[in-house]
Amino acid sequence: MKRLLLLLATLATTAHAEVPEVRIARQFSMGYLQLNVIDHEKLIQKHAAELGIPEVKVTTYKFNGPAAMNDALLSDSIDVVSGSPQGLLTIWSRTRGSAGEVRAVSALATLPYVLNTNNPAIKTVDDLARCNKIAVPAVRVSAQAVSVEAAAAKAYGIKEFARYDQYVISMSPPDSTVALLSGSTEVSCNFAVPPYMQQQLQNPAIHTVLNSFDVWGGPNTFTTAYMSTKFRTKNPVLFKAIYAALKEATEKVNADPETAARYWIEDGESKLSLDFVKSVATAPGTTWTMAPQGTEAVAAFMHEIGSIKVKPASWKDYFFPEAYDLNGS
Q1: Do the beta carbons of residue 67 and residue 141 sit within 8 Å?
Q2: Domains of the chain as residue ranges with CATH
Q3: What are the pLDDT digits (tens) for 97-106?
């Protein structure tokens, strides 16, 4: 009898250990509304069950910027990362050709992000040397940090891409917003993202200097979801469930942005009003889409300045084949 009980306990422990888990990393901005929908409506679990996996554990973690998330992905501490094309391209370049090569599952959002300042003397890229510090989520690899370099290269030539790197510091979007609005710190410029950039601009002392759409020559993807090839190979059915969940979540954000905005407020315990957050989710230039836009231009620039070693032939080099039917760029 004791042996039978021990055997049953062992089988129960093994069965529990075999329950698949998906660990998702996201950041502070509103560029990840699909993930809020996925969490609240348990869409990965739903699609996994439909595909024959009855139980999935889904855990979400919040990071400040791509550097820490990429490290977590490489150490197998995270399975799915949500971040900018710049962060994706950085880790894709590092892992390209290996069993753990990282690629994007899909894009999440195309939207503009802006460099705001509380210094009235700073009006164009020529004035960025007047910024005491330019706050971004992560130096060198975040969308904002690379956009500062792209703006400098556009204004002064490619050899001058690092002209303003000395002013760039890492700071979370909430902290950089507090610093900019207070006017009492060394942060006088912040390359901000929704909803923080809109929150900053409610203050009449804050104005915009640079817009990412202008820097990159048109609309460009702000956020993507990416993972290692190793996870996809090991979990092919679960990968299909994740892709299906992202597709359904994207449709839901477009159909009902108010509910998605409410989920974001609840998840972040935000004090912002629902009307304000909904207005951010539906702001001009904002598109919730799985199709990448303008990422090839980002890749070409990062290769030209040496941030990535290989220039991809197209966006399909750093996306998984499931996305190839999308009208990407």
Answers
A1: yes
A2: 2-111+220-323 (3.40.190.10), 114-216 (3.40.190.10)
A3: 999 999 999 9
